[in-house]
Amino acid sequence: MMMNGNDDTATAKEEHRLDAVLAMFKGQAVAEVSAQFGISRSSLFEYKRRALAAMREALKDNRHGPRLPYNRLSEEKEQSIKCVCERHPTLSSYQVKEQLGREAPTPRTIQRVRKRLSLPRLKKREKPSFKAHRFTQQQKRTIRKRVEEKMYLGPHRLAWDIQNRDRIPVSPSTIMRVKDSILEEMNPMPPKPVWKFYERKHPHSLWHGDFLEKVILTRGGKTAYQFTLLDDYSRAYVYCDLFTDPDEVNVVRGTIAAMRRYQTIPKALLFDNGQCFRGNLLKALCQRLGINLIHTSIQHPQTNGKLERAFRDDMREFYKQYNVWRLWELQLDLPEYVHYRNYVRGHWALDGQPAITRLREQDFFALPSVLEKLETFARAPVGMRVVRRNGYILLLGQEVYIGERYDRQTVCLTDTLDGLEVRVPDGKVFLLPNYRKFCKPTYPTPSRLQLFGRRNLAPMTVDERRAFFGEGVITGDDSPAIAVAL
Q1: Other beta carbons less than 10 A from residue 387's beta carbon
Q2: Which domain holds residue 455?
Q3: N or C: where does the chain have the smaller number of CB atoms within 10 Å of the terminal CB?
Q4: CATH number of the domain where residue 337 is located
Q5: Average pLDDT for residues 435-451, to the nearest whole number?
Q6: Helical segments of 190-347, H only
Q7: In the β-sheet with 483-485, what is the strand arrangement from edge to edge?
Q8: pLDDT > 60? residue 462
């Protein structure tokens, strides 16, 4: 009885509110409606809003019957999916799509079709009917102990011994895994190297230098060597040229040419451990100019990796564009390629920008007075020699003639870019260019004192050289041996 009373009260309240809302719809003022029905204005407006929302929902044209999704497939496509799923129940939805071709629906749609048509996907491998065998902790300790006792036996012998002695069935493959784990604990693998990628913060802080030795000329089979200096910060080629003799003189002259080209002195030079990079001339030049000369670790080319990576590009983009490798042709076209590499080619490390964008950040320039006399810094003392009675001195297994008037006198030898300077006590200086080419010892030598040929050469003085060749600097293969045969 009480419940019916509550229902009647709620119905009466709803009719009371409905009458109030109808009075508002008829145009009666809100204040009058509020005073008449005893309802606040805010509640009247809320009841009016609810009534309008209910009327809009009731006046909508709702379609009867089940609603079809907008992406419902046609009957033909559903049948094709059904055929493939029934024929290959182990395929995934992605594999079913590959079977149907390009016009197939998405894998998600195929999954919905499978679920709607009750097409199960079966596993490729049936569930095992027996539980996998697992060793107990005591059995594991026993197997490991037997293996450690007889590491010299093979897996089959160890498996048989464990089966016959300890009654533990074990396979040879399990024995091999146990043995490998023991050996790995006894001899742990070294940790993987952590590569440190570095980059200088300013141009001309570090130059990488090396020779590219893969250019074999077509005629004669002679090798041409590309000597390159690469700036670490900008990846630019500050020097690049081809030589037939990768000697120390070409390295020093190339470094000097790069310094004058960019009017700077690099802070460091990085080379490998080649003989041409460990000479006294290069060491003397770097020491007097304050350059830090760095050599890579032995058998570790990654230190010079930027230049090694650049050489790979050079082979693909320059040298392999020629069917025939001629020295004069390569030397003629190489400057154009270097210009492309510095001014056009983009680099990953520079976000696609060319190297010249970083070279233009140079804010340090060397003094012109220093750049003019860079060759004078490349001087290395060779040592002292005593002139023999017949006027010869011994040099690299060869006898070089100086003069009989300097018999038993001590002369000072200095290695320079132009050649070997011989300074005698009376102040005269003799120059012997290209002495490295003809003063080569022959190995093996039965005795240190044995001479391998004798050259009667009388070096010219510096004044005679200037009078004969002029004031220009003569280098490389163009400079003949300045000597007079007796």
Answers
A1: 22
A2: 379-485
A3: N
A4: 3.30.420.10
A5: 45
A6: 248-262, 280-289, 305-317, 327-343
A7: 380-386, 410-415, 420-423, 429-432, 457-461, 483-485
A8: no
